[in-house]
Amino acid sequence: MSILLKKELVFSDVSAASWEEVLSFLGEKMVESGVAKDTFVDAIINRENEFPTGLPMAAIGIAIPHANPDNVNEDAFAIAKLREPVKFRNMGDPDEEVGVNIVIMMCLTEKQVPIEVLSSILEMFSEDGLAERIRQVKMAEDLFEIFFTRITKI
């Protein structure tokens, strides 16, 4: 599987008051870039309500939202590094909240997220020092480089 990561879909220092605001921002960027359909933003928010995607990793909180493939034109990622953590519901325990620093939104033409995609993302965040490098990043271009070198292996 080859998933596209475009520089114009990687954002650093994103300010948001809620998970809905983060997903709306990234979803709209995906629609504008043509990788997602106009229905994508509503679909991804509805899916997050039903199936939360917050993951409390050891060094940094991440969320990996995605929507039904009916709302997608092509496989792609959008990434946001948040200025301040935003509360997402925990994927493993929806009654618990996770402070999320990084959102990796996926546009996928397959119904299920391929296990190799999820495992690659989780493996990436277990790398020594990576979470701290991501925390220190100020420029979207630098964030793109960190993710591009790892995501192109998927």
How does this structure look, described?
With 154 residues, this protein is an alpha/beta fold. 36% of the residues lie in helices and 27% in strands. The protein contains 5 helices and 5 strands. The protein has helices at residues 19-33, 40-50, 115-124, 130-136, 140-151; strands at 4-14, 54-56, 61-63, 76-89, 97-107. It has a 5-stranded mixed β-sheet with strand order 1-4-5-3-2, sandwiched between helices. A hairpin with a 7-residue loop joins strand 4 and strand 5. Helix 1 runs antiparallel to helix 2 (40-50). The radius of gyration is 14 Å and the shape is globular. It starts with a strand and ends with a helix. The mean pLDDT is 87.
Q: Nutshell version of this structure?
A:
The chain is α/β, with parallel strands linked by helices. It has 5 helices and 5 strands.
